[in-house]
């Protein structure tokens, strides 16, 4: 490899560090706030790193019934009024995100296979899927609310799972398509020549070869589902809730402005996203490109 | 009762607007080695895929032993196919690869073992049976792919350019090997290639394809000596045939042809329009002499190409060059010689239709 100009290398490193600082600042602020006592949450000048870190915010997230006790310990200067339950939010988010991911990836795999192997829909078909994602989600919110109320899907697991499946399916198809394209058709053909049906050849030959990519897609879709807010907000009203809704709950008309608690909840709910994101980072670049850096 | 193993009847395949195979009809006999020869993109691989059942035919019929198989899915056609890239299952061992088809078709364990062992010995794979197929070299992979198909005793074996990934020495060895195996098993083989040498050296018959259409189907000798049209004449033969402009004149019922330096040659009572046509001369049918002979023309050696066992002299012919094959060392560049052609080995190609209308002319006219 050719030796790079050391100045250029240094400059590029600086740029990377700078952009990292910018993108990591909110995460840092979130975590930092989650450890602050209530009088430092919104203090001016801002407290970057608290001198008296506390886990009380986390305690209130998990045990809202301790709120009075916490308030007493802090000389009653703040009334912790908490609405909603973090436990319920985590449970619902896990159910909805997992099942919606499962459906999205299952249907996405089948659709992508059909596109790759049988040229279903013609050359531009996969692009048409993506264009669905190019419109702002808010545009479909009103018709969705109306539709869900007619179908009695509002505030149900089924409704949320359906909505999330529908909205992530284009990503599933697009990403899985690129992984399936890398599996040579000949291998499947060879299995068929030797007595496998097309579907059996797909299941036993093609699918195992694409499983890394499909798994990466699943984690990506899970992250999308887990962090979705808008549809959760308009399509539920209390029976079903999600972590993103619960994060918002700590700063609302009924709760007051519990920034620290909100930050604690935010930190916890970000953990799976960071974890899965780290696992699939290598695959993400490949899956989301337009096939340009294949192989 | 005919001995036809495979019959294609007006077989067509279109991809969207593109017609890849435009109505191919041909018959492969039992035990025959037939090559489907043509340049890339001529539809030969598509034809193979349709026979194997991996592509659906747009129209037409495919019959094996007289029975139509177009509605039969690939896994039940019992047609073996060796892919260009072999498609060996690299995560399995060689043994599992060989047993794959037998297992898929539900053969009992003992028979599987026995058949795999026999085939492995025949193709000299017995020593690497337990290796992972991902670690094989090209020649081993090719033999694994072949053995994997042969062990299922397919009624018809299709090979899709199986040697295109190999180097010249290996190709030569495998050509002989493949031919030997085919003979000893009496296997009917349809072999797809763009390499005329492979086709000529192994085949009982060759089918030449171009742009989705069958041009000629005949023995290698006949394809070489009696090509039906300009495409076949040019595609077969190395070094390629010399094509010279020529002029046909009619005198009553008889016609005669003249080139820049030779002729007029008597065509006899041949039905061909007067005017410009093409004359095809194979390099090995031309001869160079130091003294002028009857009908010879003066020429000069421009370039001599050394092909090892033979030399190709490119000699002037009017305003162009023609190739003549010679034993090594017989001529030198710059030498002035006399070129004679053998009227018995001349192909007259009609302009327009590009058909070869005569494969030999009756003699040298004065």
Commentary on this structure:
The complex is a heterodimer of chains A (295) and B (366). Chain A is mainly α and 295 residues long. Chain A has twelve helices and two strands. Chain A has helices spanning 6-34, 56-62, 67-73, 86-118, 125-134, 138-150, 157-181, 185-193, 198-226, 230-235, 243-249, 259-288, and strands spanning 251-252, 256-257. In chain A, strands 1-2 form a two-stranded antiparallel sheet. In chain A, helix 4 packs parallel to helix 7 (157-181), helix 8 (185-193) runs antiparallel to helix 9 and helix 11 packs antiparallel against helix 12 (259-288). The two termini of chain A are 20 Å apart. Chain B has 366 residues and is of the alpha+beta class. Chain B contains eight helices and 22 strands. Chain B has helices spanning 44-52, 94-104, 109-122, 138-150, 168-185, 196-202, 220-225, 230-235; strands at residues 4-15, 18-29, 33-37, 59-64, 67-68, 79-82, 156-160, 189-193, 205-210, 213-218, 242-251, 254-259, 265-268, 275-281, 287-289, 297-306, 311-317, 320-326, 336-340, 346-349, 356-358, 363-364. In chain B, a hairpin with a 2-residue loop joins strand 9 (205-210) and strand 10 (213-218). The longest helix of chain B has 18 residues, at 168-185. Chain B is elongated and about 75 Å long. Chain B starts with a strand and ends with a strand. The mean pLDDT of chain B is 90. Chain A binds chain B through residues 122, 184, 186-187, 189-198, 205, 208, and chain B through 16, 49, 52-54, 73-76, 79-81, 83-89, 91, 100-101, 104-105, 145, 148-149, 152.
């Amino acid at each position: 490899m050719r030796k790079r100009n050391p100045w250029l290398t240094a400059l590029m490193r600086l740029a990377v560090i700078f952009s990292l600082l910018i993108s990591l600042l909110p995460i840092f602020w979130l975590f930092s706030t989650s450890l602050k006592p209530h009088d430092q949450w919104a203090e001016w000048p801002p407290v970057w790193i608290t001198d008296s870190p506390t886990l009380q915010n986390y305690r209130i997230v998990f045990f809202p019934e301790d709120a009075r006790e916490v308030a007493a310990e802090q000389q009653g200067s703040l009334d912790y009024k908490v609405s909603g339950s973090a436990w319920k939010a985590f449970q619902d988010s896990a159910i909805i995100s997992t099942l919606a991911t499962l459906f999205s990836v299952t249907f996405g795999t089948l659709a992508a296979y059909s596109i790759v192997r049988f040229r279903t829909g013609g050359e531009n078909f996969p692009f048409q899927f993506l264009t669905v994602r190019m419109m702002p989600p808010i545009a479909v919110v009103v018709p969705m609310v109306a539709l869900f109320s007619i179908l009695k899907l509002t505030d149900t697991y089924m409704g949320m799972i359906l909505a999330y499946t529908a909205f992530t399916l284009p990503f599933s198809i697009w990403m899985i398509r690129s992984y399936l394209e890398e599996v040579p058709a000949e291998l499947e053909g060879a299995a068929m020549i030797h007595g496998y049906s097309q579907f059996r050849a797909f299941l036993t030959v093609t699918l195992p070869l694409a499983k890394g990519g499909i798994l990466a897609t699943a984690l990506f879709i899970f992250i999308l589902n887990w962090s979705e807010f808008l549809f959760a907000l308009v399509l539920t009203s209390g029976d079903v809730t999600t972590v993103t809704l619960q994060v918002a709950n700590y700063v609302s008309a009924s709760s007051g402005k519990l920034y620290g608690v909100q930050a604690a909840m935010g930190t916890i709910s970000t953990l799976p996203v960071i974890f899965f994101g780290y696992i699939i980072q290598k695959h993400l670049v490949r899956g989301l490109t337009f096939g340009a850096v294949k192989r | 009762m005919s001995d036809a193993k495979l019959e294609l009847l007006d077989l067509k395949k279109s991809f969207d607007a593109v017609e890849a195979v435009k109505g191919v009809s041909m018959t492969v006999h039992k035990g025959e080695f037939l090559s489907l020869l043509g340049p890339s993109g001529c539809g030969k691989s598509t034809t193979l895929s349709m026979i194997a059942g991996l592509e659906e035919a747009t129209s037409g019929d495919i019959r094996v032993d007289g029975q139509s198989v177009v509605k039969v899915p690939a896994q039940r056609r019992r047609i073996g196919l060796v892919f260009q890239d072999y498609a060996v299952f690299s995560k399995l061992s060689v043994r599992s690869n060989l047993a794959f088809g037998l297992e898929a078709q539900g053969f009992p364990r003992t028979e599987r073992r026995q058949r795999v062992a026999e085939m492995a010995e025949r193709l000299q794979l017995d020593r690497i049976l337990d290796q992972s197929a991902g670690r094989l070299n090209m020649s081993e992979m090719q033999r694994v792919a072949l053995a994997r198909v042969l062990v299922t005793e397919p009624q018809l074996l299709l090979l899709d350019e199986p040697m295109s990934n190999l180097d010249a020495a290996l190709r030569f060895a495998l050509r002989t090997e493949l031919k030997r195996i085919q003979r000893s098993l009496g296997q009917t083989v349809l072999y797809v290639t763009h390499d005329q040498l492979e086709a000529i050296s192994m085949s009982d018959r060759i089918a030449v394809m171009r742009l989705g259409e069958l041009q000629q189907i005949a023995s290698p000798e006949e394809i070489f000596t009696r090509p039906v049209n300009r495409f076949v004449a040019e595609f077969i033969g190395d070094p390629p045939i010399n094509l010279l402009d020529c002029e046909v004149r009619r005198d009553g019922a008889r016609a005669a042809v003249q080139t820049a330096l030779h002729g007029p040659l008597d065509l006899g009572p041949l039905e061909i329009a007067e005017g410009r046509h093409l004359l095809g001369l194979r390099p090995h049918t031309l001869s160079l002499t130091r003294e002028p002979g009857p009908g010879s023309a003066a020429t000069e050696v421009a370039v001599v190409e050394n092909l090892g066992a033979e030399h190709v002299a490119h000699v002037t012919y009017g305003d162009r060059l023609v190739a003549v094959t010679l034993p090594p060392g017989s001529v030198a560049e710059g030498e002035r010689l006399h070129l004679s052609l053998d009227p018995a080995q001349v192909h007259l190609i009609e302009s327009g239709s590009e058909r070869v209308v005569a494969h030999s002319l009756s003699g040298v006219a004065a």
